[in-house]
Specification:
alpha+beta, seven-stranded mixed sheet, globular, binds phenylalanine
């Protein structure tokens, strides 16, 4: 068994202005949920790996699931051609350790490095980190699986199709097969998309439980990346998918925070090998009774310097209330025409996945959130 790579505190909490990693996030590094055989994310990972073993032959794709989530900005952005001014590079969206190291925001950060090591067919599974808003489907740490497949010159020369057509066609066949392996006989559709590292780029959607659900992003890899890896004449495809969202649908898990619970009423419901295509004949997750939510509103004037963002607000709430916060939602906004000042009112929903919360506990949390909002975001409470 591989040992999880630990990331030392002093390697994360570096005293530079860019550093925006909180204790709450640091504590999640090394949890390795995707490598715990009884965990739904690991069960889904295995189901996807099985599909690649079945369709390409066992061991044909190399699996990487212990690559360190601390990567350079070069790997996370430049190596996959993310433009200099792309929003994902902002401190508002990404966790920076220093100005040139981040917590990876996608597993695509490993594409070029693995290609350079000579890998030509591989899957990468790992934890990824994004500053974001808070609700039942968003959590600042989640898991992705990336797949890359390079076509050798020999392979492409045997085909009647151009290398690009060949890659594009196999990409679609392989991923449609993956969607059916996971979801059974469902209606599929391809939607044009944009990623800096693939061209053309697509999203695959399926019609499941009465709605269109995005399953993955993919495309034919930009030539420039292959050239940088000295595959000057090869063609390749790549895809990336979010494991939580698919696991929530397949297993019927209602809240993304449940992936992090150690409550046995959750953990005991998952067993390696339980996965069934489309969930047919599979015991879905049985929700244990939901505990009551508690709503608290907070109203404040924004600082004048436009430093306020919803992601920053969510980070402050997360840092204080941790997994007890279920949703943070803007419910009112107005501008005082005389002073030009903007006021926001946010509703915070607190709810534990595991137990009832007491009024005292919530009031104390809300009070700390209010204090942090003033101290860390410069807002004026109303
Ligand atoms: N990295 C993309 C994302 O996080 C997904 C992706 C991977 C798209 C590979 C295309 C190819 O959204």
């Amino acid at each position: 068994a591989q040992t999880p790579r630990a990331v030392a505190r002093e390697d994360v909490f570096i005293d530079v202005p860019e550093n925006n990693v909180t204790e709450y996030i640091y504590d999640k590094i090394g949890a390795n949920l995707h490598r715990k055989p009884e965990h739904p994310l690991c069960i889904l990972k295995s189901a996807i790996m099985d599909y690649f073993d079945e369709s390409y032959g066992e061991g044909n794709f190399t699996m990487f699931d212990d690559l360190c989530p601390v990567v350079s900005t070069y790997d996370n952005f430049d190596s996959v051609l993310v433009p200099e001014d792309h929003v994902s590079r902002s401190l508002n969206d990404t966790y920076y350790i220093t100005s040139d190291t981040v917590l990876r925001c996608h597993t695509s950060a490993h594409q070029l490095g693995l290609l350079k090591q000579g890998e030509t067919r591989f899957l990468v599974t790992g934890d990824v980190y994004r500053r974001d808003s808070i609700d039942a489907t968003h959590f600042p740490v989640f898991h992705q699986m990336e797949g890359v497949r390079v076509f050798s010159k020999e392979e492409t020369s045997k085909s009647d199709l151009t290398p690009h057509e060949l890659a594009s066609q196999e990409l679609k066949n392989t991923l449609e097969g993956l969607a059916r392996h996971l979801f059974g006989e469902v209606e599929l559709r391809w939607v044009d998309a944009y990623f800096p590292f693939t061209n053309p780029s697509y999203e695959l959607e399926i019609f499941f439980n009465g709605e269109w659900l995005e399953v993955l992003g993919c495309g034919v890899m930009e030539k420039r990346i292959l050239r940088d890896a000295t595959f000057a004449e090869e063609e390749a495809w790549a895809f990336g998918l979010g494991l939580e969202r698919l696991a929530m649908v397949l297993f019927g898990i209602p809240d993304i925070r449940l992936f992090w619970t150690t409550d046995e009423r959750f953990t005991k419901q998952f067993k390696p090998g339980m996965f069934r295509s489309g969930g047919v004949g599979m015991q879905k997750f049985k929700s244990y009774s939901k505990y009551p939510p508690c709503y608290k509103d907070v109203s404040f004037w924004l600082p004048n310097d436009s430093s306020f963002t919803e992601n920053n607000l969510c980070e402050v709430v997360r840092a204080t209330a941790g997994s007890l916060v279920e949703e943070v939602k803007l419910i009112d906004e107005f501008c005082n025409p005389k002073t030009d000042r903007v006021s926001n009112c946010y509703r915070i929903t607190y709810r534990s996945m595991d137990r009832s919360l007491t009024d005292d506990e919530i009031n104390a949390l809300q009070e700390s959130v209010r204090v942090s909002l003033v101290e860390e975001m410069g807002v004026t409470l109303r």
